[in-house]
Amino acid sequence: MNILLREAKKSDMNAVLLLIKELATFEKEADAVELTEKDLERDGFGAQPFFKVFVAEENKEIIGMALFYERYSTWKGRSLHLEDLIVKQEHRNKGVGKELYAKVLHYAHEQKFRRVSWEVLDWNQVAIDFYVSTGARILDSWKVVHMDERSLGGFVERY
Amino acid sequence: MNILLREAKKSDMNAVLLLIKELATFEKEADAVELTEKDLERDGFGAQPFFKVFVAEENKEIIGMALFYERYSTWKGRSLHLEDLIVKQEHRNKGVGKELYAKVLHYAHEQKFRRVSWEVLDWNQVAIDFYVSTGARILDSWKVVHMDERSLGGFVERY
User: Fold this and answer.
1) Model pLDDT for residues A30-56, shown as the tens digit of each residue
2) What is the CATH number of domain A4-158?
3) How crowded is residue A109: how many other Cβ atoms within 10 Å of its Cβ?
4) Interchain proximity A109–B152, CB inside 8 Å
């Protein structure tokens, strides 16, 4: 295996978007991705980038990626949030995901973030067991809440 | 009731920290707050602020606050995350929390965020019912995962 891990460039965003869509399909939400390549280019490579991406490359092909950004914990301070980590179906089970995961955690440690957070589907036991084996903690009593654009529009009309 | 809602200033961070600690106590994690007033002043009011706060004021006293920051959804794009919303015990049940909540959502709508997210404790049914009544969705199948600084330090030594 000859895998190169590196920070993504603007020209990688097409490959990154394909990976985002592959992950959404795995998560049974294939239609949820409204983001475009242009959005990723604008939002990740402007004067104030909203996220950072590491990609895994094999023979010039991008076979995996990890996308993350900063958050702020009122308990701990600056923290890093790993939004997506995905390896192409045909390249799984050879350690690429683990290398990307380690790269993000090493980056968080070097940058002195006080916490790294992410979210996992409760039926993805393989992932959960892996995370726990590396020292992460599953917060069983917290629920994620979302208000989407449409509900937000409805809310501001009513209140 | 004569409540003023406004954006927080650097000099409000002492009051904001007391509210963060009150919320952590309510969440049965009183000792989890490692953040100091100095941290909040530095992180919220530097060249690149890591969060924004709205406070609720009554007779010059800060009686509630909402702290939030940007995230990035690979499905929707720029999103807003409401990290903390808290009203002082003795000022609850008079609508201050709902006003702060509405202010954050109006702000998110004006700024064209594509999603607002937050987290809720699964035993806080009053809060859950309120959120759902306003159009928010509880994501039952997602779990929050944290790796704290100590585990992160252990991880980078091993991998």
Assistant:
1) 899 999 999 999 999 999 999 999 999
2) 3.40.630.30
3) 17
4) yes
